[in-house]
Write a structure and sequence with these properties.
Zincin-like fold, Neutral Protease, domain 2, Immunoglobulin-like, eight-stranded mixed beta sheet, binds tryptophan, alpha+beta, about 850 residues, about 20% strand, five-stranded mixed beta sheet, binds zinc ion
């Protein structure tokens, strides 16, 4: 008998093997008869041979389906069925295919296809989940209109498009915009709507709804405002208007990722849409605003223009992340958003690009596409759009985007199509730029400078280290935004963009009276690692004087990183002058508090490990942890007078408001509280815990206490107060692990997996525990290997239930070769145990093989 659970990897598929579909679809009609254990799906699909492909083999993807019957042009047939799909003989002319299948949404723990979450039915079809709903050509270049009838005894029955009729126990929907199957969605449940309306720029009225479970209706207002702001922004900035009569969002508790842009029916992880001052922290509000915008923006960049094949994923994701970052910059602070994005890019994408999981922004092969929803495709993909905009200028970018929408509306497009609109608008040859899409790895950019007779010369050298499958890489075009400062701090050269195209290249600046201090890669104009042997004085100078807010922050971040690296190697302590500068920045009222908070944020310990490794030094996570603690304590002592004063000064008036200004003050206040808690035995934090009327300050104070091993009572009280709230409990679970001492972190995680409220089947809860463990650098990489072993145990247990979430969490192991022999052998043991697990999913099989190959 055939075992449905594959033990082998999927076959590798290649971009170069792309062929157009053999058959196209003109229309789809679906009827769903909902039942938890036996939902019937009846389909009627109008096919037509594709003139662009002479192949006439007819194959429909379908997995885990029970076929009841199938017909061609009304005649019952007996198709050939495998565990991958269905084939049969078809006419050499347009024909209709009909089928009825049975599926069991209640048994679907993979959360892909049609599944159930807390009593509601919902779907997730990207990338290849529709084939678990019915037989279909499940590929993004097959686009069709969909008509859907849902029959079920539930008050809310939703699908894509516009409502087309409803009655007792049924509802009908019609989506007039042709779409690929991955954008199909269905939701059914006892839900309650938070409703509003939006008038589009051309005067059409759109009904807006956020559907949630009873009890959550008070957590929708913020998301609704974010949605309306996104709709207006896309009209104003990109000239994109919404195109249906209705736009629905649904919050779901069990969801593998953040959210999904299904046409007219976005489905969200409840953590990415539900918000209230009492239960959400400032960062949640900002994330929710960004994700609502992201999914909404996909309506044009993703849905109206979709991807030809899954290798082109960055076409929609890179561009849409770029668009949502522009939106956030406009809604909040540009520099703060940029700094946060770069912190995140370095922590996730640079790490990916420098390890065994490195792959190009547009990969050329994959086994499981779900493993390629990565920081590289999304975040580096967005960086490429930003570079392109820097290179061609704002005006040409706007023109190129207009052309893109005009030329490709309704298309399943490629990166070639995308670059062509830029070439056609600007006359530029983008051949070299395209290497950013095809070559993996983070370029290293080194710089020398020279001053002679009033002429300043900067010489750059670029080099990209080898990545899996790519040994040597030709030079890329790198836009280097540069400013020059005179020794007294004046800007003698305002920001200009140098276009580097050679492996080594010099740029000169004339007529300077004295050697300037260069401010290189302003605004982080390219995703590269800048290696500059700058002196500590130069960094201190830029920290004090750089007119570019990003590079000013960067100077501080470099000093902080170097300090830790020096201390790990040679001991020592932070210098008084540096501590004074930190204090001056903290008190500088001319700076945005959010920016000041970022300036005081210590570098991630993992970053220090990466930086040491790059210098040929084997990092010791425990030593990095100890030094970080020492520095934090020294800084706190230096702030003994400042911290309480600034803490009081950063108080925000009640009632709580999640706006950027107030959130920035709270961020700086939280930094001060962290310092104060190191000095006052937890008195201030305990008082804040008791008095806070919002989650930001309540949770912030609890975290401050736990990080100093205080707060047992507050911790217990927090649990009692919030145990009914799933999203607050996720935070509480994470905090129990994140603030444990390194030698206790895996024990803490283990304890939380035994907690009555732990549920591995819920991805948010699983991630709360194991995301916190993996994020605890010294804890996860503890020399005992307990962190590796525990994560391996739980990934092996989760894999049969939910391969996608298991495979995503595998990336915790991706930097295992950075560390010493003992840690490596313990990590290898854990990885090999996962690899040997019986019936391992193709998803996890691919991940573990890639990680072990390093
Ligand atoms: N396309 C979604 C986005 O970026 C993300 C996504 C891809 C997803 N696959 C998914 C979400 C699977 C949930 C589950 O917005
Ligand atoms: Zn997206």
């Amino acid at each position: 008998m055939l075992d449905a659970r594959a033990t082998q990897p999927n076959p590798t598929i290649y971009l170069k093997d792309y062929t157009p579909p053999a058959y196209l679809v003109d229309s789809v009609a679906l009827t769903f008869r909902l039942a938890p254990k036996a939902t019937r799906v009846i389909s009627r699909i109008q096919f037509r041979p594709n003139p662009d492909n002479v192949n006439r083999d007819f194959f429909l993807e379908g997995e885990d389906l029970k076929l009841i019957w199938a017909k061609i042009d009304g005649e019952e047939i007996t198709p050939h069925i495998t565990d991958k799909g269905l084939s049969c003989a078809v006419p050499d002319a347009p024909f209709s295919f009909e089928a009825e299948v049975e599926i069991a949404p209640e048994d679907n723990t993979a959360l892909e296809g049609l599944y159930m979450s807390s009593g509601m039915y919902c779907t997730q079809c990207e990338a290849q989940g529709f084939r678990k709903i019915t037989y279909y050509p499940d590929r993004p270049d097959v686009m069709s209109t969909f008509s859907v009838r849902i029959e079920g005894d539930l008050p809310v029955l939703l699908s894509n498009g516009n409502p087309a009729g409803a009655g007792h126990g049924f509802a009908e929907w019609h989506d007039p915009w042709p779409k690929p199957a991955y954008l199909f969605a269905l939701v059914a449940g006892d839900l309650i709507a938070h409703s509003d309306q939006f008038n589009t720029v051309s005067g059409k009225q759109v009904d807006l709804n956020i559907y949630v479970r009873h009890g959550d209706e008070g957590k929708c207002a913020f998301g609704m405002e974010a949605l309306k702001a996104s709709m207006r922004w896309d009209e104003t900035v990109y000239g994109r208007e919404y195109d249906l009569d209705i736009f629905n969002i649904v919050a779901v508790d069990d969801f593998n990722m953040g959210a999904m842009e299904n046409k007219g029916l976005n489905i969200f992880n409840s953590s990415c849409v539900l918000a209230s001052p009492e239960t959400s922290i400032d960062a949640n509000f900002e994330t929710i605003e960004a994700i609502i915008a992201h999914e909404y923006f996909h309506n044009w960049t993703g849905n109206r223009i979709t991807c030809r094949d899954w290798f082109q994923l960055c076409l929609k994701e890179g561009l849409t992340v770029y668009r949502d970052s522009q939106f956030t910059s406009d809604m909040r602070s540009g520099p703060v958003k940029r700094i946060r994005d770069v912190i995140d890019l370095r922590a996730r994408q640079f790490r990916e690009d420098g390890g065994p999981l490195a792959h190009p922004v547009r990969p050329e092969s994959f086994q499981e596409i779900n493993n390629f929803y990565t920081a590289t495709v999304y975040e580096k993909g967005a960086e490429l759009i930003g570079m392109l905009k820097t290179l061609v200028g704002d005006e040409a970018y706007a023109k190129a985007l207009d052309l893109y929408f005009e030329r490709h509306d309704g298309d399943a497009a490629t990166i070639e199509d995308w670059l062509k609109v830029f070439e056609d608008t600007t006359g530029r040859d983008l051949t070299q730029f395209k290497r950013w899409y095809s070559d993996a790895g983070t370029p290293r950019l080194s710089v020398r400078d020279d001053f002679k007779d009033g002429t300043y010369t900067l010489t750059f050298k670029q080099e990209t280290p080898p990545t899996p499958g790519q040994d040597s890489k030709p030079p890329r075009v790198i836009p280097i935004a540069l400013g020059l400062l005179s020794p007294n701090g004046d800007e003698v050269q305002a920001t200009t963009v140098l276009e580097m195209t050679e492996a080594e290249q010099s740029f000169t600046f004339e007529g300077l009276g004295a050697p300037p201090v260069p401010s290189i890669l302003r605004g982080f104009s390219a995703p590269v690692i800048l290696e500059r042997a700058s002196t500590p004085e130069e960094r201190a100078f830029l920290l004090a004087h750089d007119t570019d807010p990003f590079n000013r922050w960067e100077a501080g971040a470099q000093i902080a990183r170097q300090l830790r690296m020096d201390m790990v190697q040679n001991g020592g302590a932070p210098e008084g002058e540096y501590l004074d500068t930190l204090r001056d920045i903290a008190r500088d009222a001319s700076l945005d508090p959010a920016y000041r908070a970022l300036m005081l944020q210590p570098p991630a310990q993992e970053d220090i490990a990466q930086a040491l490794h790059a210098k040929g030094i084997t990092p010791d996570p425990q030593a990095i942890y100890d030094i970080s603690e020492t520095i934090a304590q020294t800084v706190a002592t230096h702030f003994a007078d400042t911290a309480p004063r600034l803490y009081a000064e950063m108080d925000t008036p009640a009632p709580y408001s999640p706006d950027a200004k107030a959130a920035g003050k709270r961020a700086l206040q939280a930094r001060m509280l962290g310092m104060i808690t190191r000095l006052d035995g937890g008195k201030t934090a305990a008082a804040q815990c008791a008095s806070a009327d919002n989650m930001t300050q309540h949770y912030g104070a609890l975290c401050a206490l736990l990080s100093q091993e205080f707060g047992a009572d507050e911790n217990a009280a927090f649990y009692q107060q919030w145990k009914h709230d799933r999203l607050v409990m996720d935070k509480w679970f994470a905090a129990q692990i994140a603030f444990a001492a390194p030698d206790k972190a895996s024990d803490a995680a283990k304890r939380m997996t035994h907690h009555a409220d732990f549920n591995a089947k819920n991805p948010n809860r699983f991630r709360a525990v194991f995301g916190a463990l993996a994020g605890h650098h010294a804890g996860f990489h503890h020399i005992s290997g307990a962190g590796y072993a525990l994560l391996a145990d739980h990934l092996i247990a989760l894999d049969p239930l939910n391969p996608q979430t298991t495979a995503r969490m595998m990336s915790a192991f991706s930097s295992w070769t950075l560390y010493d022999a003992q840690r490596q052998s313990l990590a290898r043991e854990a990885l090999e145990r996962i690899a040997a697990a019986k019936g391992l999913s193709p998803d996890t099989t691919e991940m573990v093989a890639r990680i072990l190959a390093s």
